[in-house]
Specification:
By secondary structure, this protein is mainly α. It contains 26 helices and 6 strands. Its main location: membrane.
Amino acid sequence: MPLSAKSLLRKFLIWKYKHISELQFIYILSILVGFLAGMGTVVLKNLTHYIRLLFELDFFNNYQNSLYFIFPIIGLLLVYTIKQIWLKKHIGHGISSTLYAISKLSGIIPRYNIYAALITAPLTTGFGGSVGLQGPAVSVGSALGSNAARLFHMNTKTRMLLIGCAAAGAMASMFKAPIAAIIFAVEIFSLDIAFASLVPLLLASVSAVVTSYMFLGTDVLLRFELTDKFEVNDILFYIVLGLVTGIASVYFSKVFFGITNFFKQFESRAKRLLIGGIAIGSMLYFIPPLYGEGYGIMNNLLKGDHLSAIGTTPFSLDLSNIWIVIALLLGIAIFKAIAMTTTFGAGGVGGVFIPTLVMGSALGNAFAKIINNIGLGFQVSESNFTLIGMTGLMAGVLHAPLTAIFLIAEITGGYELFVPLMIVSTISFAMTKYYVSHSIYTLRLAQRGELMTHDKDQNVLMVLDIDKVIETNFIILKPEMKLGDILKKAVAKSSRNHFPVVNDNHEFLGVIRLDDVRHIMFNSHLYDKVDASNLMHADADIIVYEENSMNDIMDKFKSSGAWNLPVIKHGKYYGYISKSKLLTAYRQQLINFTK
């Protein structure tokens, strides 16, 4: 930052401290962050739109099917080049990376995240990558929120709140659904829903929606006005749909983790690009509706135009046969998860949110068509089941049932379908939760003990920095040291009452406590006869730096009854953690959380 800018910022901060309360300034920042998140989303949508416009020229229309194979590979190649040559940094999945920053980095998000996804996501999606823009929008907004908080010297708790505001703003701007956006921020980012945090979320959400209206007008991504009311007679079908979307959500999650693990075995990014690019191109050639985000599929199905949703396929199929249409819709639902994850594996940048909705819409519509054409005299609303299918997949895959309910209710302009929304989302979420403990966003974080939840005690432990509670000022003994040397060089010079014993490779062998030598320390006849290997013993437990979370460490203290435990880092002795220091750090962090 130039000197003059720093000077102006310093003067502003001094003026702020004198004239604006902390709470008032948080409200102002939440409006600013909402505006910035809204702008980021608008830019993402427009860049993607303009890239797609290039491919709607008459020249490209003549080779449409062939280009479905080529374009995604070109887009992935451009993203690969930008990552390798310009950014030279990793771009993670937007929401997962933001959750990690909240739980382990005190909400500090690097500045490059502001523009990284802003450039690479439109290239991935605009060229046909089968991913969404919601994740990148959250990534851009969260980076803006984090850096705005750092610029104005806000504390950690406020920084995390502003990240939540940015996430709500991105969601509100994308779908023009401010209420669902607030619930999304609370449900996905585990924000405290106290009044102090609710008002900034409201302000950010409204600010983002207004920004979206200013630059995009009344245009919305999902255009639908509810015409068919909820029929009580359809409840049984909605229960079955809940089960179907639950199974589909488990499938979606398993496919995501399976394909992700498959690509991880290739260390070369170029090899991932080659394998993934060919796989995506092949899928898009045979199933063109998988191209891009998939809003066309959802909107056409909601309008009842399944022919436009399916589009032109390279096969000569009789689309007047409804069972062929149903089979194609189920194919879209099945392969959307595969195409999306393959895009990620090949190096593309995008989100999971929109593909989830696409899969749900195709599945819900196909389910309704089966009911209407099975020959048993039933007739249900295909548009309603399309919407409810989206809810079921969102609730299951994202583990966000409340977001799913309110998003679909809000974009339909009413709450006529509230009962079936609740039925399907609850069943789908419960079933998926049973088989897949965490969502796509959070499973890896949860496995590493890095996931922020609504459990405040667990969150406090998670954000504690292990390096700040490790003490390294212990006098180290070697196993061959004699008792006399131990007393002279260690006991006499240390205020500690225990001494780690390590070998020449600095591997931890055991510990000698003051109580272990107290009864012989004045017996000079033993000074040259007894060495450390005779006196040392195993400690009550061992903390592995790379593996044990703070929650694990607290459990070790509880189960062992010890007051001090050794820390092993990369197989070597590193230091000790004392229970008293850990509890002191915990209490201080708890105070910060509850301020």
